[in-house]
Amino acid sequence: MAMGGGGDDDVYNGVVIKVKVIDVKSDSKAVDSIYANQAIKDDGNSIVSRGGMFKLGFFSPGKSKYRYVGIWYNKISVCTPVWVANREKPIAGKTGIFMLTHEGNLVILADGESPKIWSSNTTSLSMINPVARILDTGNLVLWDNRSTNQNPIWQSFDYMGDTLIAGMKLGKNLRTGVEWSMTSWKSPDDPAKGQFVHWVDTNGYPQMYGRKGNDLRWRIGPWNGLGNSGLPSDTPNPFYTMEFIVSQEEIYHKFELKTSMIQLMQLTWDGIILHMQWIERLQRWVVYTDVGVDSFNRYAVCGPYGSNNINRRPLCGCLVGFEPRLPDEWKASDWSSGCQRKRPLDCASGDGFWKISGVKLPDTRQSWYNVSMTLDECEMACRRNCSCTAYASLDIRGIGCLLWFDDLIDIREYDAKHNLYIRLAASELAGNKISQFSYKQKKVVISIISVVLLLFFAVVYSCKKKRPYMKRRGIWDALNKKNSSVQMEEADDLPFFSLYEIAKATENFSINNKIGEGGFGLVYKGVLEGGREVAVKRLSESSKQGLDEFKNEIMCIAKLQHRNLVKILGYCIHGNEMILVYEYMANKSLDSFLFDETRSSMLDWPCRFQIIHGMARAILYLHQDSRLQIIHRDLKAGNVLLDADMNPKISDFGLARKFFGSDDTFTKTKKVVGTYGYISPEYAVHGKFSTKSDVFSFGVLVLEIVSGKKNKGFSHQDHSDNLLGHAWRLYKENKSIELISKSLRDSCIISEVLRSIHVGLLCVQHHPEDRPTMMSVVLMLVSEGVLPEPKQPAFFTGESHGEVRSMSSADEYTITQLYGR
Questions:
Q1: How far apart are the C-alpha atoms of 280 and 282, rounded to whole Å?
Q2: HEC letters along 664-693
């Protein structure tokens, strides 16, 4: 097709078409619209939204040589299609044109092929002056130029592909019947419809599902007022909002951005939902949440009235008042038949309800809901209807009513604020109350016995304190004989190494193979028979850690999979020997570089920022995205290992604890563990820890990475503060740049370093509620928005500008002693 000043005739498969080709390359400003009989040809022409955010034109995805018409981000360096028109009918060469006909129909034509590759099918609508325009939202809209732009005749947002961007709706238009759903690509290079679909089912109370072909694979629970049941709660943040709308015309989910950042959600070709953000400094997409499908969140894996609990072995169990429908199948790990009632309901005699806390609500396709009823009214409505099997609040803030009238399916026990009330026979409820009472009695008896045993062992210890080694070996032997079978069962998904294999790999624990030492014991480098290098951690006789920490390490790490967490390869139990085998980290730990004058120069700023970001992603995964939600409790430079490419991997989970609650939920302990210099004040003084304790430790690490100085033992000639106090003084005086290590002066990006210092100070604030969540930390590190002002950090002992100290003098004295100043 020749470029002409007015119009050109071209023949496509015998059809004569008169069009005007848009020449964006010669225009003084970007063109965002196509008018009747105008076209874009596949020779570099395109249209760009008015603000320059999105571009529409021809492209080839990945390694494919085929051509497609699509929309992608114009302002980023990586071509990321958010919509593809002819995803099922690619064009073999650069022969295509994309045009708007006089009748108001968008079409794709290709020379030598069928006259019409793709069409918007809008020619039946009467339009006099049609125009198609790409908006800065990424939406391609078609309307009559005489009418208002509020109600487009056709829009690309109604024909979603594998990507959801801000403003797009995931749901259904009840008036037109249009469904907004995500469909995966067939492969990374082929946008044709793949096997996976993610959609909103509007039967009963709406909820999101995912399927592979006809196989229902996952279900994201219903909206609970703040988020979706079954997903970690996304606390309010300054970057985006989540929204769920139910009206007479539409039901949909969507997210809106609060800043100029670029974010999207994508259903990958292999069935994973990724929430990604473009980082301009890194020139790449960063994934900070994902929803995958595994044995822990497959749809209805435990059958009717069964519950899925990742902390339990076996995975599935029956709800209170229920028992396996086919016990033999349960023994064979087939839970699909689910559970049945132990005692039948008797509505006339007055059934009751059993409360289950912290669950993903059951499948709501056979449910009824009311948005204004109270919880008491909801209970009465369920009690009056003998077919009602359970009820719950629609909103976790106590608003609305949700009733079930069928088997309860796809229940998962996890950290959640939702309560579910299950209908049980009155006799079953009475039996459970007696059982609970008996259990409390047993607890009292067990407590008394435990105290007696502790006193007994204390006496034995005082009598035999001259022979501590013999006593230790005897107790370990007893514990191992008693607990080794339990450990083996709980770690059945980890390889077991014999002591012979470990000894051979480490040359009988040769001192020449020693590569480190920690609270658990010595660490050796080993080489397995296949040539794989491993790190072998062996419990030492003098270790203060023991069986509990050993089991904790296995239980935690074995279930965690993240690129920035060290991977455990197996374990060994033999007599009093307890050994853990890990992947080998060629560059050992972060502290071996960071606090060494010679080796610290090997850590330039891009490397250090990569370490900071990798740690943040790993901690976010522990707190929110992992199967087990974990508080590490011992984050420090010595527990951050570096692989051959200097990628960080958090290690040592012996002191980690599972938690059930929000980021501000505290657990209290009488035994404070961890490393002083990294422990938060509420934990060091009062024994209270939460996810915000890890946030504090992370903040200390960030300031250490920037400065190259240790927090504990830090000294300065002008004041007596530790590193946190020193960083705070410099920040208040607008001198944060002075905190930067001298070895970074030639490689650092000043704005990036100052932002990291700012985030570090936000993390080490004295009060836990002032510290950000790790999700906010990850977003703040990579975004360019305005950050909140930090408050005075913990352990700041000096007066600064007349500010009132944020801790009592008693606490301050105690912490000062703990930190050795």
A1: 5
A2: CCCEECCCCCCCCCCCCHHHHHHCEECHHH
Cα–Cα distance measured from residue 368 to residue 362, given in angstroms and rounded to the nearest whole number: 13
Which of 49, 53, 57, 50 lies closest to 23, judged by CA? 57
Is 634 catalytic? The answer is yes
Report the SS3 class of residue 813.
helix
Describe the crossing of helices 750-763 and 605-620 by its angle, rounded to 10 degrees.
30
Give Cα separations from 729 to 98, 679, 724, 793, 804 (angstroms).
Answer: 61, 21, 9, 10, 14
Of these residues, 634, 663, 694, 721, which one is catalytic? 634
- Partnered with residue 430 across adjacent β-strands are none
- Is pTM beyond 0.85? Reply is no
- Could you read off the pLDDT of 612-633 as tens digits, one per residue? 999 999 999 898 877 678 898 8
Q: For residue 712, what are the β-bridge partners?
A: none
Contact 110, 12 (CB under 8 A): yes
For the segment 237-265, what is each residue's pLDDT rounded down to a tens digit? 667 888 899 988 999 999 998 888 899 99
Domains and their CATH numbers in the chain: 1-159 (2.90.10.10), 161-293 (2.90.10), 306-424 (3.50.4.10), 478-583 (3.30.200.20), 591-818 (1.10.510.10)
The CA distances from residue 302 to 219, 417, 620, in Å, are 14, 22, 28
Strand partners, 390: 404, 422
Q: Give residue for tokens 């009238």.
A: 405
Taking each helix axis from N to C end, the angle separating 774-782 and 750-763, rounded to the nearest 10 degrees, works out to 170
> Two tokens at 379?
């209970």
Joined tokens for residue 24? 């964006």
Contact 13, 19 (CB under 8 A): no
Residue 799 to residues 343, 393, 808, Cα–Cα distance (Å): 68, 50, 14
Q: Which of 549, 705, 569 is nearest to 633 (CA)?
A: 549
* Measured distance CA(324)–CA(339) in Å, rounded: 4
Q: How far apart are CA 522 and CA 540, in angstroms?
A: 7
